[in-house]
Amino acid sequence: MLRIAVPNKGSLSGPASAMLHEAGYRQRKESKELVVIDPDNEVEFFYLRPKDIAIYVASGKLDIGITGRDLLLDSGASAEEILPLNFGRSTFRYATRPGTAKGPEDFGGMTIATSYEGIVAKHLADQGIDASVVHLDGAVETAIQLGVAQIIADVVETGTSLRNAGLEVIGEPILTSEAVVIRRHGATDDNPQVQQFMRRLQGVLVARSYVMMDYDCRAEHLEQAVALTPGLESPTVSPLHNEGWVAVRAMVPAKEAQRIMDDLYEIGARAILTTAIHACRL
């Protein structure tokens, strides 16, 4: 069986299980379940702490895993990213009290508090900055107030919690993260079970990003319409019973669907419909 690690809790857990369910895999029904066997697909899922997943995968005990890019890099494990999953996005940045520093170039001799010691230490080393890094598990904003550090490095979403603590974001982002599929460094690409698993997840990503669009238009406007909806290879075009009209079907990016519908209407297309795509293979 293919052995796959899945986050057991946290912000990645729910979306990861939802994506796997959409891909046709059995998932756990209760959060207390640590292992789920899917005999129909010959897969065994292990629900582990997100921070530990890269280590298990790197050991070779598990074939692949789903975790955050930040957690993979922070672990230092011998594992690599093979597919971004388009959820769980976050930005990792430095912050401090106003006037303390403008960026990493000012960190010399200072102490930086973070929950991601591996990422920060490497970032500082890559830039040749001599600063100390202290590891804290969460609530790093208070490190400055308590005098433990002059700088913090943490995940930043809106920045509201930092501002409430009297801190400001400084410098460029250290890292932009999201959920990713990982495997052990040096693993080959010829495992058919892994290939099938990757195709399924890629199919979910495409299905979430596109919608199917159907519409009718006059034959003399077809070239204009096809330019708006080229599809992946080309749209499907069928003649209608009424002479001079055709029906068109094509996949279009979901985020552009409303604009495309407006443009189609302007050139005379009618009966314009969009439907969700639940699964696909390209």
From TrEMBL:
Give the top-level enzyme category: transferase
* Cellular localization per UniProt: Cytoplasm
EC numbers, comma separated: 2.4.2.17
Cofactor(s), names only, from the UniProt record:
Mg(2+)
Which reactions does this protein catalyse? 1-(5-phospho-beta-D-ribosyl)-ATP + diphosphate = 5-phospho-alpha-D-ribose 1-diphosphate + ATP
Tell me which UniProt keywords the record has, alphabetically.
Answer: Amino-acid biosynthesis, ATP-binding, Cytoplasm, Glycosyltransferase, Histidine biosynthesis, Magnesium, Metal-binding, Nucleotide-binding, Transferase
Provide the function of this protein: Catalyzes the condensation of ATP and 5-phosphoribose 1-diphosphate to form N'-(5'-phosphoribosyl)-ATP (PR-ATP). Has a crucial role in the pathway because the rate of histidine biosynthesis seems to be controlled primarily by regulation of HisG enzymatic activity.
Fetch the NCBIfam families from UniProt. Answer: hisG (TIGR00070), HisG_C-term (TIGR03455)
* Protein family according to the UniProt entry: Belongs to the ATP phosphoribosyltransferase family. Long subfamily.
In Swiss-Prot or TrEMBL terms, this protein is called ATP phosphoribosyltransferase
Gene name? Answer: hisG
